[in-house]
Amino acid sequence: MAHVLITILGLWLLVLILRSMIRIALINRHYRDWFAEAASRVVYSIVSFKLHNNHDPKTRHLILLWFFPAYLLSLIFVYFVGAMTSFVLLYWGLSAVGTWHQAFLASGSALNTLGFATPTTITGQWLAIPEGALGLGIVVFLFTFIPGYQTVIRAREDKTSWLYVRTRDQPTGVALLEWCQRAGIAGGMKDIWGAWEDWFRMLGDTHSVMPMLAMSPSVQQNQSWVLAGAAVLDAASLAACVIDSADRESARICVQTGTRAFLAIADALGRTCPAARLGTYPSREKFELALGRLKLAGLILRSADADLQWRELMSLRERYEESMLFIAKQTFAPLEGSLEDLQHASSSTVSIITYPVDARR
User: Fold this and answer.
1) Domain span at residue 225?
2) Do 97 and 193 reside in the same domain of the chain?
């Protein structure tokens, strides 16, 4: 009876391992898989401990660069241990070996494809074949996806660097619109919003399926893909509400796509319900100052009622701000390092974006 129960337990554990691998590597949908959750929680706890009270940007960036590799290696280790344990139970439960020690040796030998302790029984030899194939699959199959993950990160960082260069390392909504005016494309920004719409769609499709990608920081130490996304959403919101342009609908679609991407990523990172309002929306005074800055840059503003424009802007902004702040907190994004203090900014430097300093805590 004990052998039957042990065999059932081994089969059950093996099914869980295989299901987890299929979910993580093959299915284009995020699952709260137990094995992936366990690996990510352990790595996240270690990183959080290392970052605790550490405010040096260089050190923080170096630590965060290790997050995704550590997670992937931890997940492979979990799969190896789980697969080995399941076959240990099967070897003993099916009486392929005589002792637990022999079961461990046989399982380790087959999983590592070394074959130094293959059982002499027919049952044991038949078990060694699928276990060896599974061992190869865990390493080769999962590592095959690393180039794909790197491609996603490079595509994400390419647009992030694009924005930082054009906004002089101070990515804000107003700064992006000012650059468009200087570049002579403020009257036709359809291509800009279309390109960033594609960027947001890529983020939503990849970072929500594999949320640990969101934990991978920007390649450059002083850059943040979260802040870049927030700046573009603010710029598109302003373009949709206050800029007199034929591309207002394109800007609105960009905001809608970015909002959906941020919501999907936040949910994948563990957001269960909207957080309480943080009171970080720009004040009406700062909104007026931002409008003055846009006028000074030469952009043509709509002649609609200012109160209506304000309410429309806040309606768009409140849809993505909470999820964006949650992502910034979960990914340790150093938002406060790249933002101006609007309480003391002049009208020539005011930005429409303002976030709390403790957004990452």
Assistant:
1) 146-360
2) no
Q: Which residue has the higher pLDDT, 317 or 353?
A: 317
- Please give the Cα distance from 231 to 198 (Å, whole number): 16
By the 8 A CB rule, do 92 and 5 touch? Answer: no
pLDDT in tens, 164-201: 999 998 899 999 999 999 999 988 899 999 999 999 99
Q: Which residues of 98-134 are buried (b: 16+ CB within 10 A; e: fewer)?
A: eeeebbbbbbbbbbbeeeebbbebeebeebbeebbeb
Q: What is residue 29's predicted lDDT score, i.e. its pLDDT? A: 66
Segment 54-83 mean pLDDT = 87
Q: Does residue 30 surpass a pLDDT of 50?
A: yes
Instruction: Output the pLDDT for position 345.
Output: 33
Classify residue 301 by its DSSP letter.
Answer: B
* CB of 55 closer than 8 Å to CB of 329: no
pTM to 2 decimal places? 0.81
Q: Is 341 left (phi over 0), alpha (psi -120 to 50) or beta?
A: beta
Is residue 339 domain-shared with residue 278, that is, in the same domain? yes
Distance CA 232, CA 192 (A): 10
Alpha-carbon 135 to chain mean position: 29
Torsions phi, psi of 16, nearest 5?
Answer: -65, -40
Q: Which two tokens stand for residue 89?
A: 């139970």
Q: Are residues 96 and 127 in the same domain?
A: yes
